[in-house]
Amino acid sequence: MERTTLSTFTDPLSYQFMQHALVAATLVGGLCGMIGVYVVLRRMSYIGHGMSHAVFGGAVVGYVLGWNFYLVAGGWGFISALLINQVTRRRQIGADAAIGIITTASFAFGVALISRGKHFTRNFDAALFGNLLGISRQDLYLIAATCLVMLVVVFFLYKQLLFVTFDPEVAPTYGVPTGPIDVVFALILAATIIVSIKIMGVTLIAASLVIPPVIARLLTSSFWKILILSTVLGAVTGFAGIYISYYQNVASGATIVLLAAAMFVVVMMGTVLRQYLPLGRVDGRASEVIGTAALPPDLDVH
Amino acid sequence: MSAIVTLRNVSAGYDGRPALEDVTLEIEQGQFVGVLGPSGSGKTTLLRTLLGTVPVQRGEVLIDGRRVSGAGRTPAGYVPQLQTVDWNFPITVEEVVLLGRAMNSGVLPWPRREDRERMYGVLERLGIAAYAKRHIRALSGGQQQRVFLARALMRDSKLLLLDEPTTGVDIATRDDVLHLLGELNRDGVTIIITTHELNAVAAHLPSIICLNRRLIAHGSPEDVFTPAILGRTYNASMHVVEHDGMRLVAENPHLSQALRGNGPDHGAHHVEHVH
After folding, report:
1. pTM for the model
2. In CA terms, which of A152, A200, A224, B3 is 20 to 30 Å from A143?
3. Is the ipTM of this complex over 0.85?
């Protein structure tokens, strides 16, 4: 039994593509979990979803022109992020409508290019839904480098990012340069989405940005704890998701998202149960997400 | 006493449209000032102009003798309206308060020892040290106001700007907040608050600024609580009554009539005495 369990873990590692996929999914999962905290708390979940679709257009252009995928998709994603930022500042157009126009137009452009050259179809199935086989050694280096850069940026801009995320109106009055911080965040988000595309697929990146922070939010009320917990949850679901994907022969992105969603359901049920059963101290965290009905009596909540 | 705030012919606003026009005023160090005016009169714009976050189109703004030259350069603590706070945001009391030192506490994500000590000093002073690890939503209204006051005090400033600190809170919390601000003011902090509450808040403050895009009046409640000045401030007929030595405003004409025993309305330009 012990040997069977061990071989369950070791057997897939005999394939190089699995080694690559495991490292990539763990890193990408952790990265999405970390950046997702800011995405969710800035109420940008829809932007994350739209950005991944916008990047698809750039990816297709890069492929058609034979240019570097990361360079073209990266530039495309960053320009999309800035365009979204600019359009949403014009108050005549709602943010959701602006995102809808820019990202779907970019996605449609990619689809139009694909429809003119049917031979791209297989590659773009992978781009849409994620593919274990698609991770090269160069991809791994790029993912690792991106994760390192993002970690350094989040580490050194922790306080500024937190202030701008929590209180964007007040942050400038305390000297926080909100404009440059927003640009840096647009870059971070674009980079995160681009390095995640191959493993997660365009259509499922948003879920890996959103689900880990939401699970973490159910478990703690402190920002720095959520940041760490969400990163760990993202990495764990990425790692475990690849194994499940391998054994169940399901697309990697879909497996990771389904695993994260299952974790969310379990944690959600746990927090709901804790409210109604005397299982020890509850500090009101679940109630803050769900509502205020079941806050503990020692809290004077408004 | 020297002026801590000086505005000279200041026009300020967004997108080229002034929300404040040609405002000239001085606020002495150590004053406790209430800013009155209807919605859209420029109260919040005035605070933000002092903070350097609203473009000054004309004139000059000086804080402590130095020209305000951009956001974050004003040495002032700012407390926004609590209604603008996202109470579901996952953040504890100490995390909020430490944001007050976000730009002055080094590049590492965790607070330096002196910042942590200062934070606990401020929290102790405001009576909320026991709640440092709690989520901001798990506090009463008065405690929540103190959290954001604590963040402002972390700037170690002699000037505090508060945007409607008593709006949307119950009477006990309002008194609690005003009492606390009074204590800080007695310690030498200059305080400027905006408020809509004429009788419950403004009437008790030593100094009032009446604003309606332009400066209408600046003085003690006895000086500015007149039907003429309030009428120009609110573009409405305002009635002032004197009760036990305090000037109170009957904001509702029907209430005013009731106070006058349903007598004929002689216009708004006199103060009535009610005993």
Report:
1. 0.81
2. A224
3. no
